[in-house]
Design goal:
Number of helices: 12
Number of domains: 2
Number of strands: 16
CATH topology of the largest domain: Rossmann fold
Mean pLDDT: 91
Strand content: 15-25%
Order of helices and strands: EHEHEEEEHEHEEHHHEHEEHEEEEHHH
CATH class of the largest domain: Alpha Beta
Shape: globular
CATH superfamily of the largest domain: Vaccinia Virus protein VP39
CATH architecture of the largest domain: 3-Layer(aba) Sandwich
Strand order of the largest sheet: 3-2-1-4-7-9-8-11-12-10
């Protein structure tokens, strides 16, 4: 069994996917919603995984890493917030880097230093690759350099879940880091960067891409700066939707997915839904305006006049396509909320909480201990479970590769001793 700790666990999407893949034991999971008395996501997580591992409902920055000593943690996973990753030297000016207060990525690296996991699997919004807007790629570069400094090689890929057979057009960047010196890492040392991304890397095997190179976005390779402060102050880079880092060398490439047939919105709809999900005539009018095209003259704080414009959206949603990206505002009278024509009644309604769970691949009723508003909110924050299940199976393949490689190394040592 691969022993896992889960950070920023939400309602347990990572864990559901890994357990579906088989071979994983999540021994510790942390979920904490700051500045809130009610901890809805944690309560849901603890209820659904009752009696299985330890569940932590505390600020991750207060967790004492000594609790992981002698636990032999193999893997760390988590979907963490996209924040400002700027860094500065410590006040002494000598040793150590000080991250901006409250930046949760530093908590990941803090726990990695103690647990030294073989594998790290992280998820974030895809804009991470381009943030901040005034110094594109700085934040992701700091992350890559930090993982390198801990002795890891890294692969990343932006994945639209619907392009790989899921029910939602949800784009997220996934980051897979492996400890240096493992057979998996050694076996790919002499492979070309493009071969790792297209054929033999972590993502390539389970999320295949077309065998072509973009002419508009030609691949880039560069050496990552060693000084985190210099990266924070000066470095920028346009990262593409796939890439790898081995040692100081970073390679990034724009790949095109080999698309699979997605689950459609119509396929996930419930029958005989409660009347409360149907829209009144007044609410239909509001949605019609919100989702329609607009050109509105506005005045800025400085007195400058400008025209705000936005295009129209499908209203109601097409049922023969996967759902759009679900946000935390799902279910409210909001431009981003899904509105569908119920196949049975032909009346307009919003999605039910169970349908939102299905959009993310969660079991029906997973969040039914909460109010509807919180169920929508939690699903807007969640990840697509089916993607994690595939990644979990891929890591099990890598685990076998590492085990076989280690055995070969042991056999060679034994033969040397015999001779």
């Amino acid at each position: 069994m691969i022993k896992v700790i889960e950070l920023f666990a939400g309602v347990g999407g990572f864990r559901i996917g890994l357990e579906a893949a088989g071979g994983y034991d999540v021994v510790w999971g942390n979920q904490w919603e700051p500045s809130k008395k009610a901890q809805h996501a944690f309560d849901c997580y603890a209820r659904n995984f009752l009696g299985r591992g330890k569940h932590s409902n505390e600020d991750i920055s207060t967790v004492d890493t000594k609790i992981f000593q002698k636990q032999d943690i193999d893997m760390l996973v988590g979907g963490f917030p996209c924040q400002d990753y700027s860094v500065a030297r410590s006040l002494s000016g000598e040793k150590g880097i000080t991250g901006k207060k409250g930046v949760l990525f530093w908590e990941i690296t803090r726990l990695m230093k103690e647990t030294k996991p073989r594998y790290v699997l992280l998820e974030n919004v895809d804009r991470l690759l381009k943030s901040p807007s005034k110094q594109r790629g700085r934040d992701f570069s700091i992350m890559l350099a930090s993982l390198r400094d801990l002795g890891y090689s890294v692969e990343w890929r932006v994945i639209n879940a619907a392009e790989y057979g899921q029910a939602q057009r949800r784009r997220r960047v996934f980051i897979f880091a492996t400890k240096g010196g493992t057979p998996y890492a050694i076996n790919r040392e002499n492979e070309k960067n493009s071969e790792v991304i297209h054929k033999d890397g972590f993502f390539a095997k389970i999320f295949p891409v077309k065998d072509l190179i973009s002419e508009k976005k030609k691949p880039k390779s560069f050496l990552m700066e060693k000084d985190l402060v210099k990266i924070s102050d000066e470095f920028s880079m346009d990262y593409y939707n796939a890439g790898i880092m081995r040692g100081d060398t970073v390679y990034t490439e724009e790949v095109v997915p080999l698309e699979e047939t997605p689950i459609t919105l119509g396929q996930i709809l419930e029958a005989d839904v409660d009347e409360k999900y149907y829209l009144s005539e007044l609410t239909i009018e509001k949605f019609s305006y919100l989702k329609g095209p607009k050109k509105i003259e506005r005045t800025s704080a400085t007195g400058h006049k400008y025209v705000f414009s936005e295009g129209g959206m499908a209203f109601p949603e097409p049922l023969d396509k996967p759902g759009r990206t679900m946000l935390t505002s799902e279910g409210t009278v909001n431009r981003s909320t899904h509105v569908v024509e119920d196949p049975q009644t032909k009346r307009l309604r919003i999605l039910t909480p169970v349908e939102c769970e299905r959009l993310n691949g969660f079991p029906d009723g997973w969040t039914d201990s909460m109010t509807d508003r919180m169920r929508y909110f939690c699903m807007g924050n969640a990840l697509v479970v089916g993607l994690i299940e595939r990644m979990g199976k891929r890591i099990m393949e890598i685990e076998k590769e590492n085990a076989n490689g280690n055995q070969v190394e042991l056999d060679l040592i034994f033969l040397e001793k015999e001779s």
